[in-house]
Specification:
Blueprint lengths: L1 H11 L11 E4 L1 H5 L9 H12 L5 E2 L2 E2 L12 H7 L10 E2 L3 H9 L4 E7 L2 H8 L3 H17 L3 E7 L3 E2 L3 E2 L2 H14 L3 E6 L6 H10 L8 E5 L6 H10 L4 E4 L19 H10 L8 H15 L9
Parallel strand pairs: 1-2, 1-11, 3-4, 4-5, 5-6, 6-9, 9-10, 10-11
Antiparallel strand pairs: 7-8
Helix pairs in contact: 3-4, 3-12, 7-8, 9-10
InterPro entries: HMGL (IPR043594), PYR_CT (IPR000891)
GO biological process, one term: ketone body biosynthetic process
Protein name: hydroxymethylglutaryl-CoA lyase
Length: 308
């Protein structure tokens, strides 16, 4: 009850705050959620999980990642999973691609939207994809060009926008610099990731101010809930004009390179919090519970969302 009461106390502060009437939730469970889970989920179960999520009312579900099975074993069946899921009307199914090889594999199975990752931390970039920020952006530029030639939409991510497990605090101006590069490449939207969950409302406010030159309707936020601060951070972002939030059903997963477990904020917690404030998400909570129960049962883990 203490977590519930603490969250409700935080939400009360925003009852009379100017917030958007609607927020788009990008469901990250099948990709960012599962990639760091030790239990390997079978392909047919991933397909069922994604199909259950598709029934919930999400506009976007990040489906899988076309990465080397050597580095992320959980995503080794990307082509099979994407090919077999039911594609619901008005739902996008973006996939993560790190390089041209990944893009070529994605194109073979008819992917319509991809995501590319940048980082605001040099050390994290080296640990994550074995190259500098500058080199990673050059690599992604080639991916983006080929994707555009094939009529593919591109979403961008910036990792470690609040802090890095190797460098510590990150300069918000560095985040702005990487964000600008991703937009210049042709990303239609850039998601700002607090990869290890060290963000605070004050840090979030500072980041929003550093990004003031951008159209906030083209930005999204991706908070991890390591220290139970994801919801307050999200609300600060919404207060500044953000209208898109990434989250993961049941609080699944996190980044395998983050140095310690740092799970995504639970989709259920986000939806409950927004509903409490009168913000529409379009998500059916009963159908979401069905998807959550299914995946948590497979993983033998507890749903860490906050319900009230």
């Amino acid at each position: 009850m203490s977590r519930v009461n603490n969250l409700l106390s935080q939400l009360q502060k925003y009852k009379n705050t100017r917030l958007p009437k609607k927020v788009k939730i990008v469901e990250m469970g099948p990709r960012d959620g599962l990639q760091n889970e030790k239990t390997i989920v079978q392909s047919e179960d991933k397909v069922k999980f994604i199909n259950l999520l598709s029934q919930c009312g999400f506009q976007a579900i990040e489906t899988t990642s076309f990465v080397s099975k050597k580095w992320v074993p959980q995503m080794g069946d990307a082509s099979e999973v994407y090919s077999k899921i039911e594609k619901f009307p008005n739902v996008s199914y973006p996939v993560l691609v790190p390089n041209i090889t990944g893009l070529d594999q994605a194109l073979k199975v008819g992917v319509k939207e991809i995501a590319v990752f940048g980082a605001a931390s040099e050390a994290f970039s080296q640990k994550n994809i074995n190259c500098s920020i500058a080199d990673s952006l050059k690599r992604f530029n080639d991916v983006v060009i080929k994707a555009q030639q094939n009529g593919i939409k591109i979403r961008g991510y910036v990792s470690c926008v609040m802090g890095c497990p190797y460098e510590g605090d990150i300069d918000p101006l560095k985040v702005a610099e990487v964000t600008q590069k991703l937009f210049e490449m042709g990303c239609y939207e850039v998601s700002l990731g607090d990869t290890i969950g060290v963000g605070t409302p004050e840090k979030t406010k500072n980041l929003m101010q550093a990004l003031s030159q951008f159209d906030f309707k083209k930005l999204a936020v991706h908070f991890h809930d390591t220290y139970d601060r994801a919801i307050p951070n999200i609300l600060v972002a919404l207060e500044h004009g953000i209208e898109v939030v990434d989250s993961s059903v049941s609080g699944l997963g996190g980044c395998p390179y983050a140095g310690k477990p740092s799970g995504n904020v639970a989709t259920e917690t986000v939806i409950n919090s927004l509903n409490y404030l009168g913000i529409e998400t379009g998500i059916d909570r009963e159908k979401l519970k069905k998807a959550s129960d299914f995946i948590c049962g497979l993983l033998n883990r507890q749903n860490i969302s906050i319900n009230f």
